[in-house]
Amino acid sequence: MEYLREFFDITVLYYNPNISSEPEYVKRLEEEVRLIGIYNDQVRAYRERGEQPEAQVITDNTGLIEVIRGDYEPQTFYEAVRGYEDCPEAGERCFICYEMRIREAYRVAAERGCDYACTTLTISPLKNAAKINEIGMKLEPEYAPVRWLPSDFKKKEGFKRSTELSAIYGLYRQNYCGCVFSRPLDKEVNDEDSNA
Questions:
Q1: Which residues are CB-neighbours of 188 under 8 A, at least 6 positions away?
Q2: Which end of the chain is more exposed for a tag (fewer CB within 10 A), N or C?
């Protein structure tokens, strides 16, 4: 968001049906909302002083980031990956999950008249950015005129910056993607204490 808001008006869809427990889903959503609230407060403070925040030099709207809260629908994830439960991490099951989430981002983007859709999934060094972008490009014709914005946000120290921002703002960082299949096996994951 920090980078994209320099170029785009942003609407964030929080949609993660893969997350295996509702408390974990809510905790991650609340952190997303909190961070966006911080960003929006920064923009408001600049505006109150009559200044233009550096991160809004191109866009000309309010500069505020909107959050759309997706429903918690784990059954959607389980139905989509049925038969792929034993796939290795970062394999076909994950690709199905990526597509399900990207498809929903496209649907919402089209419904709202957005120009582009993209995902923050590529910030993770554990996610296959090439495959994510391949899926995004494959779905683009179904949702035209919305276009896919190819990304690999972990590059150019993007992942490093995400950890710096987490430290600055005291953000919760989990140590697994959220699905039951990715939970660490060496210990029981406590959704209240799964900071990485």
A1: none
A2: C
- Domain boundaries defined on the chain: 4-182
- Whether 108 contacts 132, CB under 8 Å: no
Task: Report the C-alpha gap between 155 and 152 in whole angstroms.
Answer: 6
Residue 65 is given by DSSP the state P
Q: Which structure tokens are listed for 89?
A: 């991490």
The whole-number pLDDT of residue 177 equals: 84
Is residue 3 within 8 A of residue 157, CB to CB? The reply is no
Query: Model's pTM, two decimal places?
Result: 0.85
Name, in order, each residue with C-beta under 8 angstroms of 55's C-beta and a sequence gap of 6 or more: 2, 5, 6, 43, 63
* Paired tokens of 161: 């910056």
Only one residue has tokens 């191109």, namely 58
Is residue 67 within 8 A of residue 37, CB to CB? The reply is no
pLDDT in tens, 69-109: 999 999 999 999 999 999 998 999 999 999 999 999 999 99
Q: Where are the alpha helices (DSSP H) in 89-156?
A: 92-112, 129-139
Find out whether 62 and 43 touch, Cβ atoms under 8 Å: yes
DSSP β-ladder status, 66-69 and 11-14: parallel
Cβ within 8 Å of residue 11, ≥6 positions away: 65, 66, 67, 68, 108, 109, 112, 114
